[in-house]
Amino acid sequence: MVPSELTVKLGDLDLEGVLADVQRLIDSGAAPLDVLRDLQEGMLIVGRRFEAEDYFLSELIYSAEIFKQATALFGDTLQKDSGNTVGTFVLGTVAGDIHDFGKDIVAMVLSSNGFKVIDLGVNVPADDFVKAIREHQPEVVGMSCLLTTCFESMKATVEAIAAAGLRDKVKIIVGGGPVDQMACDYAGADAYGTDAQNAVDSAKALMAVS
Ligand code: B1M
Predict the structure, then answer these.
(1) What is the reported pLDDT for 210?
(2) Other beta carbons less than 10 A from residue 59's beta carbon
(3) Quick one: which of 62, 12, 67, 59 has its CA closest to 35?
(4) Ligand 1: distance of its center to the CA of 106 in Å?
(5) How far apart (Å, rounded) are the C-alpha atoms in residues 58 and 174?
(6) How far is the CA of 63 from the centre of ligand 1 (A)?
(7) Rounded-to-integer distance, Cα 118 and Cα 137, Å
(8) What would the pLDDT profile of 140-182 be if each residue is shown by its tens digit?
(9) Alpha-carbon torsion 94, 97, 98, 101, what sign?
(10) Residue with the nearest Cα to atom 69 of ligand 1?
(11) Nearest CA to ligand 1 atom 50
């Protein structure tokens, strides 16, 4: 598939071009999730260039700044309250991982689909997930993980939830760039999500809510 102009501009770290395109798309009534998809693909290009050592950590940090400014242009369009509560969702980025953009988008889209989201933040120790389950009694627990080195954290968190006797009380969804069915099985989760809408659909399916 040919990347959109917006995707290419983010890949090229063209701050002004990205902001102008996002504003134009918002003004023309584009769906925020479609714009986000283009931005996410731009971040994938940045990631690939980083891996190829065409970009370095400073470029990775700059891409994060562009992404932050671009998504700020959405205002609260992704956060509108749907009015009815479908269920409670405890969400966090696992221990050792500080990537939060994907998690934040998942949180916003869950909220706008009726979930009460308890966001534990990033680099969340397994015990904090356990404490949050005891306190908030969620139907679903979600872990975001962008680093393959943190698959162990996902697994350790699921194990801590089981050791606390809470595994059969919650459904567990994992997600983030490198997370696939194999990672999901390795962690012992119930499902994995590839994007924010997918996380919502999986959560509803696991709760058997249509
Ligand atoms: Co990092 N980083 N990074 N980074 N970074 C990646 C993840 C990487 C793939 C880049 C690469 O090399 N290609 C690579 C990981 C490689 C691997 O594990 N195999 C990597 C690395 C190596 C690192 C460091 C180790 C670099 C270093 O220090 N040498 C370091 C680690 C720090 C740490 O966490 N301990 C690091 C640091 C950073 C920054 C701080 C500079 C910055 C993060 C800023 C921030 O989040 N506040 C950063 C960035 C920006 C990236 C890339 C370029 C972009 C990530 C992003 O924000 N994407 C990334 C490249 C890539 O993604 N391929 C990369 C946009 C976001 C909307 O998408 O997060 O995928 P994403 O979320 C999506 C879906 O994945 C899904 O829905 C979201 C919305 O659609 N999703 C879920 C996410 N969570 C979900 C949960 C669900 C369901 C769906 O259910 C619960």
Answers:
(1) 40
(2) 14
(3) 67
(4) 14
(5) 28
(6) 11
(7) 11
(8) 999 999 999 999 999 999 999 999 999 999 999 999 999 999 9
(9) negative
(10) 102
(11) 64
Is 175 a pocket residue for ligand 1 (Cβ < 6 Å)?
Answer: yes
Ligand 1 neighbourhood includes 173 CB (under 6 angstroms): yes
Backbone angles phi, psi at 109, to 5 degrees: -70, -35
CB 100 within 8 Å of CB 121 = yes
Measured in degrees and rounded to the nearest 5, phi and psi for residue 139 equal: -80, -35
What's the CA-to-centroid distance between 163 and ligand 1, angstroms? 29
| Rounded distance from Cα 83 to ligand 1 centre (Å) | 32
Total Cβ atoms within 10 A of residue 2: 6
Q: What tens digit of pLDDT does each residue of 64-77 get?
A: 999 999 999 988 77
Q: How far apart are CA 179 and CA 181, in angstroms?
A: 7
Does the beta carbon of 42 lie inside 6 Å of ligand 1? no
Reported as a single tens digit per residue, the pLDDT across 33-70 is 899 999 999 999 999 999 999 999 999 999 999 999 99
Residues 129, 120 contacting (CB under 8 angstroms): yes
Query: Ligand 1 pocket, 159 CB below 6 A?
Result: no
